[in-house]
Amino acid sequence: MESRTTKPTWKKTVAVAAFILIAVGRAGSAPEAPKFTEVSAQVERQYDQAKVQEREIQSAISLEKEPLIREIQQLDDQRKDLRKRLEQLKIEENMRASDQGKLGSQLKRLEDNLKFLGGAFGEYSGGFLSRVHQAENGLYGDVYNDVLDKTGGDALKDTQKVVENLRVVDLALRRLDAVIGGQVFDGSAITPDGFKADGGKFVLLGPQAFFSQSQVSGIALTMASAGAADLPTVFDMGADAAAGIKSVAEGGEGVLPFDPTLGKAIQIAKSKETVSEHVAKGGAVGYTIVGLGILSLVIGLFKWIEIGSYSVPSTGRINSILGNLMAGKKSAAEQQANGLKGTAGEMIRIGVDRFEGKREVVEELFFEKLLAIRPKLERMLPFLAVTAAAAPLMGLLGTVMGMIKTFKMIELFSASDPKTLSGGISEALVTTELGLVVAIPTLIIHGILSRMARGKVGRMEAAGVAFLNGMSESQLLAQRAAGGPNTAMAPKRPKEEEITDQSQGESSGGVTG
Questions:
Q1: What tens digit of pLDDT does each residue of 194-203 get?
Q2: What is the pTM of this model?
Q3: Would you tell me how many other CB atoms lie within 10 Å of the CB of residue 109?
Q4: Residue 306, Cβ neighbours under 10 Å: how many?
Q5: Sequence-separated (6 or more) residues with CB below 8 Å from residue 492
């Protein structure tokens, strides 16, 4: 309240000062201006009137202020109450949203569990007959097929499908109770000759099933049978086993044969085939590949003997002949050279005969022998290379022909009977196998024989070079002994690098061919 009383005083002072200034200004300009006292008195009166008005206004404000303050306080209290209520509502909203999220998550989990159960039961129901023995199809096939028919479409809800699939689960539990300790029931089977045997009895003991009938008795195995895919195939295990199976089927007691492989050994023994039967699955292409393989094997054996029979004199033998020649014992050297066999022996005998002649002539004669021996050593090796390259391609050809045959069978007879497709598939796979079986050994044999041939040629080149070097050394010593110039021709290697490069080029050309 003190601030409000001070404010009018300040205003009053300012107003009086302004009025005085105006009055003074007017007094200087107008001759009849009012006196200062009059003006001051007038201002005082106006100020008093304004002060009175201010008091009246202040009192009015005071009268109106209290109810307004009370109203403001009431509104502020209401605001606080509404804010608290709003906060409570937000908390409740968040709690309800959280509860709704939890309920949604729980509902989602329940739906997922329901789908999982439906899928698990559906999968179990779908594969139920595949997990039981083929002989039990007649016992459980009706219920199984009925459940599949009802759950196969979209007419039923997930819960209803679960209920239907539970029928198969209940059927499996009842089967479990029935097979504990063994189970005997009537049924039909397929004989080893492919005929249907009716009026027999099955003895189910664990995973193994036995069949007893007046015509055939033995172990009943789950195998695909043409025209009777839902019936097992019986394999005779002998008279003693048949008597035991019949005793158990009719009287409940007896001795049963036991197969620890659960029929796998019998099926494997039945599926074994001879080499001729296996090759026959490849058809004409298979026989052609095998023929090429046999011919390549014969050629490889012949070339092994042929290349191995070419003898090349050792370095010691060459040095011994050169020693006799340099010592003047030509007859002894000729006798040693005559003991050498093959083209290498002929080459050394030429060198012995022309030992005292010109080196260039002997070198050319040696080179001629080397050129003559190379084709003999490498002949028929290109056939092995061609066979190694062609056999996989022929196998691929047989594969394509077999797949074409398979597609034709599918087009004519559909894919319901696997036997109608086995011929084409067998040809498609067997020809590829035969092509690789022939190509890999042929390629290895070709590589070994080619290396042997190059080795023989290289050894003959080394023998020729050694002989020529000895010949050059002998001629040099003879010139020195005769008092010839010291600048006589030194021993050199007669075109050995050229010969080696040419031999490698021809060998590589033979392999490529």
A1: 777 787 888 8
A2: 0.48
A3: 10
A4: 16
A5: 472
